[in-house]
Amino acid sequence: MSEPQDSACLDCLIEENRLALHQLQAFLERLTPTLYRYAFGPTGRQSLGKHVRHILDHYDALLAGAGVGSIDYENRQRDERLEAEPVAAVARVVEISAALPRLHAHHSTTQQMRYPVDGACSSLTLSTSLARELAFMTSHTVHHMALLGFMAEQLGVALPDDFGVHPSTLRFWRRSRIVPQAAGAFARSSKPRLVSQ
Questions:
Q1: Distance between CA 135 and CA 13 in Å, rounded?
Q2: How far apart are CA 92 and CA 24, in angstroms?
Q3: pLDDT digits (tens, 9 = 90+) for 34-80
Q4: Cβ atoms of 85 and 125 closer than 8 Å
Q5: Which helix or strand (DSSP H or E) is residue 89 part of?
Q6: What confidence category does residue 22 fall into, taking pLDDT thresholds of 50, 70 and 90?
Q7: Which has more pLDDT, 163 or 32?
Q8: 125, 151, 164, 180 — which has fewest CB within 10 A?
Q9: What pLDDT sits at residue 103?
Q10: How far apart are CA 62 and CA 158, in angstroms?
Q11: Exposed/middle/buried for 165, CB within 10 Å: 0-12, 13-18, 19+?
Q12: SS3 of the chain: helix, strand, coil, percent, to 5
């Protein structure tokens, strides 16, 4: 891939991530600390805040590792303040979103990802690229946003139709003119509907 193509590819992937983070920020700005910390499940180990912190930890790992060419999602900071304080999480989302375009500075750095495994070897070192990791990050973020959406709905928090929906699904909906229904079913629309990104 030529350098202009590589740069354009990174631009698209960075923008996908920034759009997901923008959605996450808007969601967080509507939450009270009580809702953010509400404990789900029989053990109370799940909360909106814990999923948000997990998302942000992964971005921090990517941003920290890209400059040195060694990305390690296992060795995350796990800042507990981010899972307890929605205001702190919003501030970190804004910082991460602003930092993502700076990944261009490392587009030519050879990237490796550490992946822990059980057994004789403690971790694998896998070859990767910034583009691959940004694509992963979009999927990872949207996956957890879908879980956030499910949990938030149980708390009575209304969400936009496209919250926690992968960009590939949004593109499919637009191509097929599919409009999500409130009841969870899908219907074909006679008029194209612009889904905000």
A1: 6
A2: 11
A3: 999 999 988 889 999 999 999 999 999 999 999 999 999 988 888 89
A4: no
A5: helix 86-99
A6: very high
A7: 32
A8: 125
A9: 95
A10: 31
A11: buried
A12: 55, 10, 30
